[in-house]
Specification:
The protein has 200 residues and is α+β, with helices and mostly antiparallel strands. It has helices at 32-35, 66-76, 83-92, 95-103, 107-110, 118-135, 151-164, 169-180, 188-199, and strands at 4-12, 16-21, 24-29, 44-54, 57-63. The radius of gyration is 16 Å and the shape is globular.
């Protein structure tokens, strides 16, 4: 099983990235919290990896911090929640906020994440509350430096990220425009975070 990858960031999108390790490109799915902590392409990158094996397929999921990976593993242990939905949940709420919401059994807060209904939120809160409480404050959650890009590209990436989370293009664009007017400096992390607050 692949548990860690260190190489050159060959390509990145809000859904997946490719890491070149010794001439071999590994496709890795990442949550948004990891995506906006990535360096620019052609720069060195190091991620913690979970290898998911199903039937005849093998999928890699990458995480910038141990907390993100731990939350992912918690989420996939819940009945009815697969790895893709787990990544979507991590993308819809910051890892620290997500851990706190689960630890406090806050199902209502979890329902604000696209794709998470009442029953799923309640199941997450019930099944993971004790584990999340134990993990709270015990992990290294310091992120890598956040990358910066051109404003237009950053806005397009933020729009793509929100539509991938299930928001309509119209709603996502409205939220991004409102978020953009609130910040002095446009960053992908800031736009997505503020837009998600507006949408919720």
């Amino acid at each position: 099983m692949i548990a860690h990858l260190k190489g050159i960031l060959f390509k990145k999108t809000t859904q997946s990235i490719i890491i070149d390790v010794g001439g071999v490109g590994y496709a890795v799915s990442v949550p948004l919290s990891t995506f906006y902590a990535l360096p620019e392409t052609d720069e060195k990158v190091s991620l913690q990896i979970h290898t998911h094996v199903k039937d005849d397929s093998l999928t890699l999921f990458g995480f910038n911090t141990s907390l993100e990976k731990a939350l992912f593993l918690m989420l996939v242990s819940v009945s009815g929640i697969g790895p893709k939905l787990s990544v979507n949940i991590l993308s819809g709420m910051g890892p620290q906020d997500l851990l706190e919401a689960i630890a406090h059994g806050d199902a209502i807060r979890l329902q604000a994440i696209p794709g998470i209904g009442k029953k799923t939120a309640e199941r997450i809160a019930l099944e993971l509350k004790d584990r999340a409480s134990k993990a709270l404050g015990e992990m290294d959650i310091s992120p890598m430096p956040v990358s910066r890009g051109e404003d237009r590209l950053t806005i397009d990436d933020a729009l793509s990220a929100l539509t991938n989370l299930g928001y309509s293009a119209k709603s996502a664009k409205m939220a991004i425009e409102r978020a953009k007017s609130r910040v002095k400096e446009i960053t992908l992390e800031g736009l997505i975070r503020d837009a998600l607050r507006i949408l919720s």
